[in-house]
Design goal:
Layout (H helix, E strand, L loop, with lengths): L1 H23 L3 H18 L2 H5 L3 H17 L5 H26 L12 H8 L2 H51 L6 H48 L7
Helix pairs in contact: 2-7, 4-5, 4-7, 5-7, 5-8, 7-8
Amino acid sequence: MDAIKKNEDKVLNGKSLKNRAKAAYDKNKIKWTLNLVFKLLKKLVKVPVVNKFLDYHKTHIKYLGIVLTSVVNMEPIDKEIEDITINLDDYIRQTEEVLAAIAELPMDPLEGMRNPVIILEIAEDPAAAKEYDEMLDAYQELVQTALNAITHCAEQGRDIERDTRDHTKNIIDKLNGMTVESAIDRVLIERNKTRVQFVQLDLMTRIQRVRSRAEDAKRVVEPLIVDVALIGRINKK
């Protein structure tokens, strides 16, 4: 009798577990997550840096080269510094847009649905199973797109910082070594030096901050792509 009673308890417990899982499973959850993923993907791909992989570093180095030439020729560099600022401001703005999209990423597309009993229940419904697979595939595309974009932004930031240190030091050295032949020359040299120092200090501080945030975001996204790639799809054996 004890053996029969234990078996009955086991069956009842199993049924209870399945009933609790069913009660916890919101059938609108998959559709809601899928819609959110598509919305975020659409938002992310609108950022030009995501699709075009704009090379802010290459543009920045070109402008620094023009600054050096102008300095050597004893010419004002206000226009060149303005161009540098516009280019770096755009880098910062687009990196901020990628960061904002990443901040909205669901950290777990299967939140509340990782119970094996729930997955079995979804698998029993062909429409739900199809939507489940589509949601995971779309989420994987989303996080891969986000990872590609933020990796590019972080790399651009590191390259800009590195080459700015070298180039601006060279420009300052040129300015310090110039022969002053008149008061006008002295004023121009000091003004140009101030403008280059603006790039060294103000602009580079802003670049460092956003680049650091991009690298932090990259470390957040990397495990997400690994996790979703390992999740089995119901209709893809």
